[in-house]
Design a protein that fits this description.
By secondary structure, this protein is mostly helical. It contains 28 helices and no strands.
């Protein structure tokens, strides 16, 4: 009988949790428009509905605390009987779920709670927080008085709700630290709270936030047992909190323990022999995850300050890359940290800081080259994850190139030039790239994106790469045109165009023979590609640009190539037709100089040339 009763209760709980899960999802999607990359506002139709209901609302300024919480151990107030605004009622119902969760746990009923419902509740709250809590009044033409009185920036209830939510965040992370998905959703709730300057300023005066920060910075359980990705996101969320008068003290308490733990770890007298120790590795991984969280959440106006804090970690990271060369997780996190710093800091650094960043990245590149020579030449690669370090390394190089054309740091020339760092990096990765690696889509895309950036920004350096590396680079560009799909083909064609344009504008009278031969080879290959029946006409733009640049760079060779194409036609009629078509493709009126008007005219001519020639070459 007891077993049947227990089974029936469990079934009832499962049904209840299923309903609560879907109701919370429906509430979230009803109350908010889920958008990315835009400010989240209260949907217009809901604002109008709230305004229309004002005449039926008995109180526009309810006692939120008594409505959400269970006072004195009695029953909760029935929200439907309070005659409040219907939107306020629905939102407070979601808050009540949080109270009930805490009540269950305080009575030792954690085991009967559903982590999925707790996660859905946290997700729903994170959706609601951005548009409603301390709402942006200037973003609306009309405002509902009940919504403004409960959630407005100046309302006491909004301040209390911020504190309530921060306590909810701390509670979830402490109780559910082993639930990865739930902890990540809870941290997203924290980020939603502090995303707004108004909410962040209120949060800085809440003891719950300081308590959360101190628990995390101490490195002790339960927050120390959070999954690595959650530790990174929590650091990211806490860094976003730093605002107002207490910002400096808050960040000092957050970051200084991190520095002390890292220093004591790396200054171990026998770190090399302890590099295989699981405890050492886990401590280092936790520190690196936190640093990655710091790097990815830094606001532009804080970059110089945080880079000064980050620089010693980066400098030590270069030597750690060699010490932990056999520990994949550590090396990948070190490279990811450098990639995040390059991505988020580079364009906002001053001249002195830019030099420091380039110097430390140059050291990393040399260490990476030392530790990875021949790494992928004899290894059979079954999964793309086996090359994660190479992917991160290429991302770092790609982001470092942005400083040359996008600079918000008022930076003049630095002692270490970005081109020196990038070319050293290219010299490192070109010997590592092979057909096996390029079969993986993400690696392939990242490699050709990097080559595209370098050919576009530093074509003069590509042209003078050492012999074997230059040949390898040209062969990889040729493979990119032919083997890896339209996106990679476009990047490769634009890279070839950049090198050809540089050759056209170069004042050097005697170019390297290898460069001349490569340009001639690409010109012949492009004509053969465009005249083939398999050519994708969606690529006519980049193909036209590259072909015209190559013609301008190799006028005499183009003339001999055109003559050879005509001579290859056995059919006299095709012979004359092709000669006439080539004449119309580059008529005497077309100036073979790489200027905009000539490029546009050549493309128009090519769009006529290709279908006409294919019409008599392949179809009779």
């Amino acid at each position: 009988q007891d077993k049947r009763t227990l089974f029936s209760c469990q079934n009832n709980l499962d049904s209840l949790y299923e309903d609560l899960h879907w109701l919370a999802l429906i509430a979230g999607y009803t109350l908010c428009d889920i958008v990315r990359g835009e400010d989240v506002l209260i949907p217009v139709h809901l604002m109008r509905h709230s305004i229309a209901c004002q005449q039926h609302v008995r109180t526009t300024d309810p006692d939120i605390r008594s409505l959400i919480q269970q006072e004195g151990g009695g029953e909760m107030v029935n929200l439907s009987s309070t005659h409040m605004d219907p939107i306020v009622t629905l939102i407070l119902s979601i808050f009540r779920l949080c109270v009930l969760e805490k009540l269950f746990i305080s009575h030792g009923l954690l085991d009967v709670l559903s982590p999925q419902v707790c996660e859905t509740t946290a997700w729903c709250l994170s959706c609601v927080v951005e548009p409603y809590l301390m709402l942006s009044e200037e973003s609306y033409d009309q405002l509902s008085l009940p919504l403004l009185s409960v959630f407005g920036r100046d309302s006491e209830s909004a301040r209390w709700l911020v504190a309530f939510l921060l306590e909810k965040v701390t509670f979830n992370l402490s109780v559910w630290s082993a639930e990865k998905s739930l902890t990540l959703t809870t941290i997203q709730l924290l980020k939603s709270i502090v995303k707004s300057t108004a909410r962040s300023a209120v949060a800085m005066h809440c003891e719950a936030l300081w308590s959360l920060m101190r628990q995390f910075s101490s490195g002790h359980a339960p927050l120390a047992s959070l999954p690595p990705s959650a530790q990174r996101e929590l650091m990211s969320g806490l860094v976003m909190c730093g605002a107002g008068e207490q910002r400096e003290a808050f960040l000092a308490e957050l970051l200084q323990p991190l520095r002390h733990r890292f220093t004591s770890l790396v200054q171990h007298p026998d770190l090399q022999s302890h590099s295989q120790d699981g405890g050492t590795q886990q401590a280092l991984l936790a520190t690196l995850e936190s640093l990655c969280g710091l790097a990815q959440s830094t606001r532009p106006n804080s970059v110089p300050e945080f880079f000064a804090f980050m620089l010693p970690f980066l400098q030590v990271g270069v030597s750690l890359l060699e010490v932990f060369a056999d520990v994949t997780e550590v090396t990948e996190l070190i490279l990811e940290l450098f990639a995040l710093v390059a991505e988020n800091y580079t364009v906002f650094l001053s001249e002195a800081q830019t030099t420091q960043l380039y110097e430390v990245c140059l050291g990393l590149i040399r260490t990476y080259a030392k530790c990875n020579t021949g790494k992928y030449s004899s290894v059979a690669l079954a999964e793309e994850e086996q090359c994660e370090d190479l992917l991160l390394f290429m991302r770092m190089l790609t982001h470092l190139t942005t400083k040359d054309f996008l600079d918000f740091g008022n930076c003049g020339p630095s002692a270490v030039q970005p081109v020196d760092v990038i070319i050293t990096g290219i010299n490192t990765i070109l010997p590592l790239i092979n057909e096996e690696i390029l079969k993986f889509p993400m690696l392939c895309q990242q490699f050709y994106t990097l080559i595209h950036y370098i050919c576009d920004i530093f074509p003069e350096k590509v042209a003078v790469l050492p012999g074997k590396l230059f040949i390898a680079c040209m062969q990889l560009l040729e493979a990119g045109v032919s083997n890896y799909g339209s996106d990679i083909c476009k990047l490769s064609l634009e890279s070839v165009e950049s090198v050809a344009v540089h050759y056209c504008s170069s004042s050097e009278t005697h170019a390297r023979q290898g460069l001349v031969q490569s340009l001639q080879h690409f010109l012949k290959m492009l004509f053969e590609l465009m005249l083939s029946s398999s050519f994708d006409m969606d690529l006519i733009g980049p193909a036209s640009g590259a072909t015209f640049a190559l013609i301008c760079a190799q006028k005499e060779y183009y003339s001999s190539l055109a003559g050879a194409l005509v001579s290859s036609q056995a059919n006299p009629q095709n012979h004359s037709r092709l000669a006439e078509a080539l004449h119309r493709l580059t008529p005497p009126s077309l100036t073979l100089e790489h200027v905009r008007s000539s490029r546009l005219q050549f493309r128009k001519n090519l769009e006529v040339f290709l279908p006409f020639v294919k019409g008599f070459l392949y179809y009779r």
